[in-house]
Structure formats: structure tokens, C-alpha cells
Amino acid sequence: MKQCPNCKKLFSKNQDNFFFCDDCGWFMLNDKNEFQPCDEPKAAPIPEPEKPPVVVAVPVVTEKRETTIVSPQHKHTEITREIDLLFFTLRV
Asked: If we measure between CA atoms, which residue out of 4, 6, 28, 26 comes closest to residue 16?
């Protein structure tokens, strides 16, 4: 068990290289194996969950016109429309 360098009491809790004394507060164990006072250690940040991809559908309209001349005065136009959907996956 490690003890506080100030009051010589045993540390009541530890977290990695950080140790807590009930009387003196937090200490950090540095590279030279010496204790130095420090602020309370912060927990590692919780990563944000990955956002699901967004799927977008884009309509593409293709139009065909076929004109048939019935007589010099009359024309018949047939319009055909095809609609296709293009899907895109977007990662945000």
C-alpha cells in the first residue's frame, strides 16, 4: 500500500497513477516515482455513438416523346415517362 507524502496515511483510493488521501487530496505518481499534488483525475471521455448512415433517394425522370403525323392537319404525340430512383448512402 502507498502512503501520502504529507501526512503518511495510506491512500484511500487510487485510479491508474492517481492516488487520493482523505486529508490531503489527490496526488499523481510522476515518472521519477514521486508523488506530486494534482487535481482530481478526469474520467476518459465517453465517445459519441457513431451516427447511422443517411440513405437518400433521388428520382430521375426520363421523358420520351413520339410524334406520329396522322394527316397534314393532325399530329399525335405520345409522351412516355420513366422514373428511376437512385439511392445514395451518406455518412455524417
From this structure: 28
- Per residue in 13-56, pLDDT (tens digit) is 777 777 888 888 877 777 677 777 877 766 556 677 888 889 99
- For 13-51, letters b (16+ CB in 10 Å) and e give eeeeebbbbeebebbebeeeeebeeeeeeeeeeeeeeee
pTM confidence score: 0.37
Contact (Cβ atoms closer than 8 angstroms) between residue 27 and residue 5: yes
| 16 within 8 A of 40, measured Cβ to Cβ | no
- What type of residue sits at position 35? F
Report the candidate in 4, 29, 5 with the shortest Cα–Cα distance to residue 15: 29
Cell representation of residue 61:
425522370
- Tens of pLDDT, residue by residue over 50-78, are 888 899 999 999 999 998 888 888 888 89
